[in-house]
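stage 2 :: seqdesign
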């Protein structure tokens, strides 16, 4: 791990008609790390994630990718820089095979996306590469199946393969284990660990056991601000973090 952050946010703020969902957040994501963004419901995680992935424009503050100011860039342009957001089920094409899905990701990153005719040797090379990404996520045996027929957990693995095909240096994952059964959670967790080799991962995640197993660094948010930061072991024993989560549970019990 180097000391220069791959992603840096400074004074990041977002207001929704006067309500401060994210307030003056400073964040450093170290290259090569798996970094989790956590916090009780309403803490501002999703808003912060949407700001960092450029799905939302901040009210104030700046975002730097490898020290390049990307605050005003579009999501498409940051993905070309090597920062790609995954885990949006809609991003997979239901009526294409798994292999074709991954090939679309490859074509996007190689600039071949808009060519409707490709020479045979180019197609074969793309297929070989697509197959290697399917292999990485354990889906090479189902390469010819339609995406629509996959069980939910495997769809997540397919999305990851498609995202990896875009050659991300920084992978942004939005609640990667959400909605998964216990076994799938284990598999997706192992998968993230595997694909994080040689890359950086920033993820919003609720499942603390997942975080404790794979994350190097954890940022805890509360009411739009950063409450604590450190390793899972460090932040999980901080009284203010425990209190924040207890408050959340108390609220959930009442509703
Ligand atoms: N588009 C929006 N308009 C108004 N308020 C919003 C919007 N998005 C989020 N909020 C509010 O901002 C706060 C943080 O939301 P969010 O980022 O979704 O938190 P988390 O993901 O940590 O649960 C919440 O109080 C939420 O109601
Ligand atoms: Mg959220």
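stage 2 :: out
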């Amino acid at each position: 791990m180097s000391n220069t952050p791959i992603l840096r946010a400074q004074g990041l703020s977002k207001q929704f008609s006067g309500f401060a969902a994210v307030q003056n957040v400073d964040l450093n994501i170290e290259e090569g790390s798996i970094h989790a963004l956590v916090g009780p419901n309403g803490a501002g995680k999703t808003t912060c994630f949407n700001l960092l992935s450029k799905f939302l424009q901040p009210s104030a503050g700046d975002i730097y990718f490898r020290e390049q100011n990307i605050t005003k860039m579009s999501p498409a342009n940051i993905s070309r820089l090597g920062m790609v957001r995954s885990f949006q089920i809609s991003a997979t094409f239901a009526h294409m095979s798994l292999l074709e899905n991954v090939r679309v990701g490859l074509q996007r990153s190689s600039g071949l996306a808009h060519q409707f005719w490709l020479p045979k040797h180019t197609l074969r090379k793309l297929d070989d590469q697509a197959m290697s990404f399917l292999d990485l996520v354990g889906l090479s045996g189902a390469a010819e199946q339609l995406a629509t027929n996959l069980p939910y957990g495997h769809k997540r693995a397919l999305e990851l393969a498609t995202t990896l095909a875009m050659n991300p240096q920084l992978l942004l994952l939005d609640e990667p284990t959400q909605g998964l059964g216990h076994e799938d959670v284990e598999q997706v967790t192992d998968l993230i660990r595997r694909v994080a080799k040689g890359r950086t991962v920033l993820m919003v995640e609720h499942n603390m056991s997942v975080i404790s197993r794979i994350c190097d660094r954890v940022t805890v948010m509360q009411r739009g601000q950063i409450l604590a930061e450190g390793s899972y072991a460090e932040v999980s024993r901080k009284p203010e973090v425990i209190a924040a989560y207890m408050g959340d549970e108390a609220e959930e019990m009442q509703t």
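stage 3 :: structure notes
- The domain at 1-81+171-181+201-255 is CATH 3.40.50.300 (Rossmann fold).
- The first helix runs from residue 45 to 52.
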